[in-house]
Amino acid sequence: MLSAKFLLGRGRDALSPTEQRALEDAMSGVRTVKANQHLARRGEVVTQSTLLIDGLVSRYMDDREGQRQIVAIHVPGDFVDLHGFPLRRLDHDVATLTEVTIGSYDHQALLSITERFPHLGRMLWFSTLVDAAMHREWIFRLGRLDAEGRVAHFMSEMLTRMEFIGLTDEGRFAFPITQSELAEACGVTSVHVNRVLRTLRESGLMTFRNGVVDIADRAGLARLGEFAPDYLYGDHGRWRVEGNGSEIA
Amino acid sequence: MLSAKFLLGRGRDALSPTEQRALEDAMSGVRTVKANQHLARRGEVVTQSTLLIDGLVSRYMDDREGQRQIVAIHVPGDFVDLHGFPLRRLDHDVATLTEVTIGSYDHQALLSITERFPHLGRMLWFSTLVDAAMHREWIFRLGRLDAEGRVAHFMSEMLTRMEFIGLTDEGRFAFPITQSELAEACGVTSVHVNRVLRTLRESGLMTFRNGVVDIADRAGLARLGEFAPDYLYGDHGRWRVEGNGSEIA
DNA sequence: CGGAGGTTTGAGAGGCGTCAACCTCCGTGG
DNA sequence: CCACGGAGGTTGACGCCTCTCAAACCTCCG
Description:
The structure is a homodimer of 249-residue chains. Chain A has 249 residues and is an alpha+beta fold. Helices cover 39% and strands 20% of the residues of chain A. Chain A contains eight helices and ten strands. In chain A, the strands form three sheets. The first copy, chain A, has a four-stranded antiparallel sheet. The longest helix of chain A has 27 residues, at 118-144. The first copy, chain A, is globular. Residues 237-249 of chain A have low confidence and may be disordered. Chain A binds a DNA duplex (30 and 30 nucleotides) through helix 7.
């Protein structure tokens, strides 16, 4: 199942086997793309959406001088541009951070899904809204935390999301991006992100070397980054809110 | 029509009269709320969503010391927490900035809409994704612009959104928030936002006094804030992308 | 072995935060 | 009618976090 990681660890009810199969069948093609390639450009009208099966993808916008702001980083199981289905054109660029495997969904196929499987359609909607919740938390991170807090918050989020899809090993996960890209996500310069990483290393919270993140003191890192995972809408942990009988989605 | 401003100026196809009526009929109650009142809290399970009919509403999160980051400001016609329908609980607080008039929608009624009026359902989805697009632009604003650019970008966005719903008069619009609240949206201190406003005033770009924004040099302000309105998905202007025959939403 | 991309460290500058004082406006009550 | 208090706005002094500029180093790979 190439789409097996979609919403894995998320939401209150997983997809039913029927829905999982419908999603898998709707995929029109699978391909691999090398690192640092564009998948879509701002302003482009899109007729397909992309499910990330393996690798990392970024969404970003550049300022007038070409300075880049990454607005989202996607991990396997994420629909990187599902919002292009209702929006029809993109307001940002999309590019691979690593070599990736992606699956394509024609918007016609998605339309058909929403009509034949309303609940699955709402889960697609749900997944775009979890992206929006992450956007909000990124706004908070940039507006209220200093450089150290931003990196701590970012890495706490990535750890949690990697755990959802089973890609961690005792607080350690492969994360093959450069310090410059980390800086572009956190709104600081790469020079400064380097200094922050040294501080985090020396304080025993975490290391980031050779594309591997190793979080030694998860609670300490979360405290520093004021990180609370509720906004990721995972189905583990104390943030879980039980259903009240009036199930909607 | 209390819901008349929903998606006004947005999207490629307006709501049909039937859809407009369905939306109006689904509203379960209208009430007014005074300024600076909570409408919802982070973590809360919600069973209704709120359409803002008149006034201003903010969504925000506080840091550990109580410093506030506003992540969204809503104007009439906005569904302030429609994302609560698929998400079921909120990851942020919601509060009124001014006295407001709001309409309530039971999630059961929204569920019924999505099943009886699939296109209207997709337009609801669409509206939550325009919110997400604004979130992305706010990330860019905080990550890549200096204080002056942030205020310029913010005000450019507000002008454009106010124009969509017909609440401007020659670049002037009522915007009764405090400088502190503006600062909380732009990720700077109120002291510094005050200095920025003075600079903008002295350079002849705009003024903000007594709850009224007056933008004298719209192009200059947009340049300073690196503002391009495409992410608001309005149906005016050069950013409009015409349909290509494969209409989805 | 040479070059490119990425990482690391230092020195100096500046934008913005912090702290603090003072002002205006306005509703309230003596 | 004026005193009073609180909210919001304005301005100055000072310091620090982060940027900029610069250079060295490391590693991978053609």
